[in-house]
Amino acid sequence: xxxxxxxxxxLGLSGGVDSTTAALLLKENGYEVIGLFLDVLGNNExxxxxxxxxxxxxxxxxxxxxxxxxxxxIVINNFCNEYICGRTPNPCVVCNPNVKFKTLIExxxxxxxxxxxxxHYARIVRNEQNGCCFVEQAxxxxxxxxxxxxxxxxxxxxRLLFPLGEFQDKDExxxxxxxxSLFNAEKADSQEICFIENKKKAYVDxxxxxxxxxxxxxxxxxKGRRLGKHKGLxxxxxxxxKGLGITLGKQAFVTRLDPExxxxxxxxxxxLFSREVISDGNFFVASGEESxxxxxxxxxxxxxxxxxxxxxxxxxRQLDDGRVLTLFDDPQRAATPxxxxxxxxxxxxxxxxxxxxxxxxxxN
Length: 364
Fold this sequence. Notes:
Blueprint: E1 5-12, H1 17-28, E2 32-39, H2 45-58, E3 61-66, H3 68-84, H4 91-111, E4 113-117, E5 123-126, E6 133-136, H5 154-157, E7 160-161, H6 170-179, H7 202-209, E8 217-220, E9 226-230, E10 253-258, E11 263-267, E12 273-284, E13 301-304, E14 312-318, E15 324-333, E16 340-346, E17 352-363
Parallel strand pairs: 1-2, 1-4, 2-3, 4-7, 8-11
Antiparallel strand pairs: 5-6, 8-9, 10-11, 12-15, 12-17, 13-14, 13-16, 14-15, 16-17
Helix pairs in contact: 1-2, 1-6, 3-4
């Protein structure tokens, strides 16, 4: 591997206004920036064209890398299998450490660049006591994307830059893009799942076209009594009220999906609340390990059970089977298996940073 230059950075360039503005900021700060377009589908000509145009406007070297095979094997397969098993996955959480940032690091090593960067709204903070780097919440609480980045290890965090982390909001990003007459200053935000059309229940068609079927089964109440027939587990998620396809004469919510019995449990809104959430596949940033660090057990912190949730006060406990129990002060609504729970700590300076997280496997 060639020597890595501290003034050289590989930036994930999607062609959108966030990554393009991030590249602009890096260039203005004296970095030699190379724009890398990650083609997760292998045929994204429109996205590649926008990224190439953005690079040309800023005078950047441009690289296009086809990562579709890696993306399909790791992200799409996980996405489909999770839904079939009655869980609700977040593909970005899987993609970030295993595809996006892994590819950026590989490209940086090949190009002799020390740093990598993206247009995420987050910041990097270094703990002077242990030398570890962590993802800090963005200046903008509305745009903060730290939740999606909890599985990044020290090998990535120590070389990562987030140029947009200090921005107050998306308007500030667009304002800077307009000031420099960037072609994508008004470009709409990207859709929620990059490999699926942004329309209702499109993910169900996507999964079934890959040959995976979800069998019809029974709706049941909390005591296991049959209420009617459901269309297959992939059509439902915890907390869902609309589109159930059953009339009970009162409001009903999905409170549990059981892949072994192939049942969907319906209950009341109150049934969705719980103070206890159990997670497996946990990752703690400082250690890079799955087990709860001893210095975090029983410590007051905050946790989020979904991207859009507000951080809530809680403590963590290590369970004998290796999983982690999060005990919230206040009951949380609709903790959903397959989604991530992310843990935040505050240091002596008041900095709020991501300490780790895991995949929700049950709520008690």
